Amino acid sequence: DEAAIEAAGVRPIQPLLDRIRSLQTASELQPVVAALHESGVNAAFAFGALTDAKNSTRVIAAAMQGGLSLP
Fold it and tell me: What is the pTM for the complete model shown?
């Protein structure tokens, strides 16, 4: 329902945005990054599985740089 999504605006993610905005120290960052990951946002980094570039029959673990994203 696109109209409902547009009407909601940022309200569904406002608690996360408020939490990010309230960061004051580096020690407060880790719990916020964890909360973002729990919400499906790959903040700072992401883990996943990729096909091995040298052996396409294998799937390997991968750690990747996160990007600027929204849930």
Answer: 0.65
